[in-house]
Every structure is written in structure tokens, then in C-alpha cells.
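Reviewer comment 2.1 asked that we show a complete input and output for one of the modelled complexes. We chose the guanine case, as it is the one discussed in the main text.
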Amino acid sequence: MPQIIDGKAISQMIKDECRERVAVLSADGKVPCLAVILVGNDPASTVYVGNKKKACEYIGIKSLSYELPETTTEEELLALIRKLNEDEEVNGILVQLPLPAGINEDTVIKTISPAKDVDGFHPENVGKLCIGQPGFVSCTPAGIIELLKRSNIEIEGKECVIIGRSNIVGKPMSLLMLRENATVTVCHSRTKNLKEVAKRADILIVAIGKPRMITAEYVKEGAVVIDVGIHRLEGKKLCGDVDYDDVAPHTSAITPVPGGVGPMTIAMLMNNCVEGFEKR
Ligand code: GUN
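Response of the prediction step:
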């Protein structure tokens, strides 16, 4: 039987640690503050933003909520970000992605002060990650490192294959695994012989956005499998990028969906907020 990596329990531990750190700060009259910006009414984004605000409340982080209409212009959004950059009370700024058509995401991300970029998306923070300097790290990949470490899974010297090369997950994930001294391969839609490459992995991290694509044929016996995907199937059941029932019996450890990687993203966002506040 594989070890089922319990993201719900591990994320709760991290949130409780954050809560204790905030209690210490609050005793001194210091309260971290996260500004959360949602543009438009994408249903998934609305749920994510609601969960982020709830987590802030649990931990004791003050959250400022900006819910802007779909018709918001890029210039209006940039003006709000510039105002929040200058606001001494605010130490974290989060703009929920994706943004409506007509607003350039790169411009928005670049406008957030790198010192308040708790998502770790600003090119300065990505560059710092690349050259091994401290900075904010993208929450989902940072959460995966925590899942592995807190499940006592060794990373150093292991063959790690990452499927997916997005700016939010695949690329920062590869840099973090490299920092942990894994040997890293990044695969994508043009990779030849994907099954053969994936089968080399001691640790296989899947972030491709295709429901149940990864079957047992892609997985070496005894590998650790981390599933970043989340999809709602007809009939409402949730599944990941990995065909769990097919793959799990061949692994030594695996993340379930839901309850694996998903809850870690918010926990690490909270961690980034508190850490950013402690360091400033
Ligand atoms: N949309 C999907 N994931 C994320 C995330 O981690 N941060 C933000 N800001 N938007 C997202």
C-alpha cells in the first residue's frame, strides 16, 4: 500500500504555525495585511478568492478585498496596484488570475511591488529563485516541497520528472527541485517518448491540466507521484491529471485529489504573507 500524502493535514499544520506566528506579532500590535484583488466573476476564481480570505481570517491576517467589475480597464487595475504598493499597512498584494481579456497579465504582475508579491510571480522574484537568492516563491511548487519534506520523502540525488512547464507551477517547480539537489527533467507537450521519460522518475510531478492522463504505464514501480491537476468530471466527482486508481498501487507515495496539493497553495500563500511581514 502506498503512503497517501495528506495535503489537508499538512496544510492545516502550516496554517496553525502561521497562526501562532501572527499571534506573537499581534501581541506587539503588528498585524500582517493582504490585499486580494478579483476582477470579473469567474466562478472558480470567486471560490479561490473566498477561500484565501477565509484562511486570512483563521490565521489572523487582515485582508482587504477588492472585487472589481469585468469591465475594469488595465489602467484602473494598475492604478489600484500602485496605490496598494504605496500603502504602508499592506504587506501583500494578490491579483487573482486569470484576468479578463484586454488586461495584460504580465503588465499587472510587473506592476506589483516585488516586496509585496506574495504569489512569487514578479520577474524579480522568479529571477531570485533562479539564482538561489531569497525571495517570494510561487505557492503551489513551494507547497509541493513542503509535502515531500513533511512526509519524510528524500529529494537529494533523486530523479525528478516534471510534466508541465507553466510559469506558475512547472518552471518554478524545476528550480526548487534543483535547489533541493534532485536531478530534474521538465517535459511538455512536445516531449518525445513521454512515457519512457516519465518512467525514469523517482519523483514524478504532474501539472499538465488533462484529466487522468497519467496511467500506470508512465510510472516506475515504487515512484512518488505528485498530482497538481484538479478537474470536475461529469457527475461532479473531482479528479487529477493522474489516473489515481490505476497508478496508486505502483507507487510508494501519492497525493490524492482532492486533499493533496490543492490545500497547500493557500497554506503557502499564508506562509508567504507572514514571512514577508516578519522580514520587512
Ligand atoms: N490562479 C490560479 N492559481 C493562482 C495563484 O496561485 N495565484 C493567483 N494570483 N491566481 C491564480
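The chain has a mean pLDDT of 97. We note this here for comparison with the apo prediction described in Section 3.2.
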